[in-house]
Every structure is written in structure tokens, then in C-alpha cells.
Amino acid sequence: MKIVLPGGTGQVGTVLNRALTAAGHEVAVLTRQPTRRGEVAWDGKTLGPWAEAIDGSDVVVNLAGRSVSCRYTADNLRAMMDSRVHSARVVGEAIAAADRPPRVWLQMSTATIYAHRFDAPNDEKTGVIGGAEPTVPGYWSYSVDIAKAWEREQEQAETPHTRKVALRSAMVMSPDRGGVFDILLWLARLGLGGPVAGGAQYVSWIHDRDFVRAVEFLVERDDVVGPVNLAAPAPLPQRAFMRALRSAWGVPVGLPATKWMAELGAFALRSDTELLLKSRRVVPGRLLEAGFAFDHPRWPDAADDLVRRMRSGRAQPRDPQRLPPRQ
Ligand SMILES: NC(=O)c1ccc[n+]([C@@H]2O[C@H](COP(=O)([O-])OP(=O)(O)OC[C@H]3O[C@@H](n4cnc5c(N)ncnc54)[C@H](OP(=O)(O)O)[C@@H]3O)[C@@H](O)[C@H]2O)c1
């Protein structure tokens, strides 16, 4: 198949591109700074010659968006919102204008769209959309607003010949340098992999190979339309999540961190504590219902596999210059 990955130069794009290319597909990446074969220039907001890459393609997986791992300043929040809304809108316009539109458009969204909660898991049918939780900082609602606006752009796009699926993905765990797993492991190796603010908040995650398999599954399943959760079926409290990570690497201790220590750490890493403190209890209702079987449903096994691959150095980044260096 011919597959187009707008925003495919980042962590998730690297994982997908590597797997889809290895499976024999022709992959084109839309990027603001093309440097490699297979990369096509676009600006993420206006139609241009890049739209020819979409015309005649089979599948589009739009991953574009300013990284959310940053300080939540007014400028950064606006860039997080605009980069997602504008890129989803213009991808929709390109598909609508195509003579031979792709048969499916998978649009990245996020598991962060669901409410911060501990009592029950969020699936697509019964899950609670976030933004109105009384017990969390008010500014957390902005991430939910971004996710809603992002999905709305895809929903509203008039692409009658193209099936639309929104990927409400949890953190994609891959052994690539600079990815979220690498950063968490780095913290654990420094002895900082303990519970944060008590560690009761749930962590949702998905193993990179299951992420790729789920994308392939959704490409094939013509009956699946709309939002789909991409998360392993067993989210777990942050305390247990980090314990399993420490055990996979062989780190004996992880210092606990209070909320204010997390604030300091997030400040030092130029990130935001929402990423650490929000309880993301998200489960893959629709994937399981459709018959998808996870290869790595449990975190301890997934963490062991990721550590093994990291140690054997098999998952080097496709382009080391594209990802931030290991800290
Ligand atoms: N990583 C995860 O675990 C995870 C989980 C759930 C959802 N997501 C979402 O999935 C998407 C991909 O994740 P990722 O980790 O691969 O992100 P990433 O590493 O930050 O890559 C995203 C890509 O988006 C492009 N981009 C950034 N700012 C842009 C802008 N203003 N306009 C157009 N394009 C822009 C960049 O490509 P160029 O610089 O080459 O143009 C970048 O490579 C993101 O939207 C993210 O929020 C990620």
C-alpha cells in the first residue's frame, strides 16, 4: 500500500515508518523540513503541492502536532492547539480534493481526552470525557479541549469516500532514544523512578508493536469508524508501573517524589506535571470487541521486552539526528 504519514518524523512516526516500510509498504512522510528520501515538504496548515502525495494513496495516518512535553505557557498551548487543528483540517481538505482519495484516514488523537479518574476505566462507550473534574487544576481542561478540537476537525471533514478513525492513543512505549520509555527509564536509572505524589494515578500505555498491529488492524477493518482507544487492556497505578520498570532494568530503589518535587522536576525538564499526575485509566473497548488480540497486554512483560530490545540495541532510531539525544 501507499501510506502517507503527515508529521511522521517524530517518535510515533519513526515506529510506524520502520514497521510499515519493513512490511513492504511505500511510505511518504510530510514534514516541515524534508531531509530524507520519501519526505515531502508541507507547512501543516495550507494546501500545496504536497497534496499530490495524498491523491492516489491508500492510507493516511496524521501524526502532526507540536510536542506536548513542554511548559504550558500561553504560546505553547496555542501552538499545541493550532498545530493539531490546522494540520487535521488541511489533511481533510487534501483528501476531499483528491481525485483518488485514500480509503482510510487514521487521525491521531489522545487518551488524554478522558477524565482524570480512579474508580473505573474509560472505554469508548462508557468513558467520561474530561474537562469538568472538580478535583484537578483548571488548566488541565486545556489538553482535553485540544483533543476535542482535534477530533472535531476530522469529524467535520467532508471526505465521503474515506473512512475516518480517531486514534485515542495512550503513551506509545518503544525502545527508541528520546522516546517516552527512554525518558522514564533514564529517570528510573537515576533512582528517581519511585511513586510520584503517592503514585495512585493510573498510567495507560501501549507497546510499540501492538500500536503498529492496531494501526494495521484498523486499516483492514472497514467496519470500524470514529474514536478508538489504543491502550493495553491493563493500565496500572504509577507506583506499580515504575516498580515494574525498575525491576525490568534491575534498579533496586526508586525515590518517592511529592507533588512539589514533581513540580521542580517538571520545571527542570521543561515539561508539565499534568503528564505525571493525571490519572489516565483508559482501556481498549472497541479493539477488543472487534477481536484484536494484544501481544503485550501486561506492563511487566512489555517492560521486560522493551528493556531487552534496548539492551540488544536492535531498535536504533531510523534517523538518529531526528530524535533528541539520550540524556
Ligand atoms: N508519543 C506518544 O506516546 C503519543 C501518545 C498519544 C498521542 N500522541 C500524539 O501523536 C502525535 C505523534 O506523536 P509523537 O510522539 O511522534 O510526536 P513528536 O515526536 O513530537 O512528532 C510530531 C511531529 O509533528 C510535527 N510538528 C510539530 N509541530 C508542528 C506544527 N506546528 N505544524 C505541523 N507539524 C508539526 C513534527 O514534524 P516536522 O518537524 O518534521 O514537521 C513532529 O515530528 C502527536 O500529535 C502526539 O500528541 C503521541
From TrEMBL:
Membrane-traversing stretches: none
Sequence ranges assigned to domain DUF1731 in this UniProt record: 270-306
InterPro entries per UniProt: DUF1731 (IPR013549), Epimerase_deHydtase (IPR001509), NAD(P)-bd_dom_sf (IPR036291), SDR39U1 (IPR010099)
Pfam families in alphabetical order: DUF1731, Epimerase
Domain NAD-dependent epimerase/dehydratase: 4-223
Family designation: Belongs to the NAD(P)-dependent epimerase/dehydratase family. SDR39U1 subfamily.
Protein name: TIGR01777 family oxidoreductase
Taxonomic source organism: Streptomyces yaanensis
Lineage per the UniProt record: Bacteria, Bacillati, Actinomycetota, Actinomycetes, Kitasatosporales
